[in-house]
């Protein structure tokens, strides 16, 4: 804004050629203005100067106001920016503070963890030492146990040998007692009927006598006899007799009881199938057939479950006044006086 007083900043008017005006050569003192010259200035000129002065004042005021507003705006912007920066820095400071607290906590936790780890290591070392001591003691105990076990094995073997010896002695004693006290049966047979034939085959009856010569009763006594006709496929009566004795080892508890010194007697009828007679006669040229009686008697002692048996086999022959042994001709009946019953093989294996 221009602060010059009215009339002071006015330059002297010049003519168009640039020289000062020649209108008046009279100098006016600044302290004593010329009254007559002042009257020459018109009111219009004064108003124009006043207006121009007011315009300049208003323009200056407007500039001042604008600049002041700009400064205020800049200040506000700076304040807002500073406020935002302050808030941001405050948040960052809080985060830094919180981060510092968390870091402190982490450091504290790390220190605690390290302390706990050291304590755990110390405890582990101590426990390891204890475990080593325990392992050493267990090894010593295992060694002692092994020694005891080896001694126990030796003692067990000795005890087993002793037990086996005692058992063998007991078995020997038992067997000796059984041999001396068990029942012993003797079986004999005689012809009790004639040899007859019918469409079924041949028939004959034998009389059995079973004597107990032992020192105890024979219980569950059973007899299993068979009319055995030999042919090309059936040639060994001894094997058949052993088969009968084997079957009697599992016989039922039913049977007779024969006391020591007692003789049990019984008739037993036999039959030979016609087909067996035909096969035997055909095998021997239809001149004779081979007839045998095989039997087995099974029993046991009254103080033992041990089965015993005695087997026999007899040959059937035609009686000859001259003492010769004649084989039966086939399909011819024989009276009781014409038949001979001859033992045809007895082995100690068949009596047990």
Task: Summarize the entry for a quick read.
The chain has 352 residues and is an alpha+beta fold.
What does this structure look like?
This protein is of the alpha+beta class and 352 residues long. The chain has 2 domains: 49-146; 185-350, Immunoglobulin-like (Sandwich), CATH 2.60.40.10. 47% of the residues lie in helices and 23% in strands. The strands form 2 sheets. Strands 4, 5, 7, 8, 9 and 10 form a 6-stranded antiparallel beta sheet that branches. Strands 1, 2, 3 and 6 form a 4-stranded antiparallel beta sheet that branches. The longest helix is centred in the first third of the chain and has 139 residues, at 43-181. The radius of gyration is 78 Å and the shape is rod-shaped.
Essential attributes:
352 residues; Immunoglobulin-like; six-stranded antiparallel sheet; four-stranded antiparallel sheet; 10 strands
Question: Runs with pLDDT <50, length 5+?
Answer: 1-32
The CATH class of the largest domain is identified as: Mainly Beta
How much beta, percentage-wise?
15-25%
Number of domains: 2
**Average pLDDT level:** 80
The major sheet is characterized as: 6 strands, antiparallel
Which second-level CATH architecture of the largest domain applies? Sandwich
What's the CATH topology name of the largest domain?
Immunoglobulin-like
Shape: rod-shaped
* Rg computed from alpha carbons, rounded to a whole number of angstroms: 78 Å
Q: How many H/I helical runs?
A: 4
Euclidean distance between termini CA atoms:
163 Å
The oligomeric status of these chains comes to single chain
Please give the number of β-strands: 10
Helix content: 40-55%
Structural class: alpha+beta
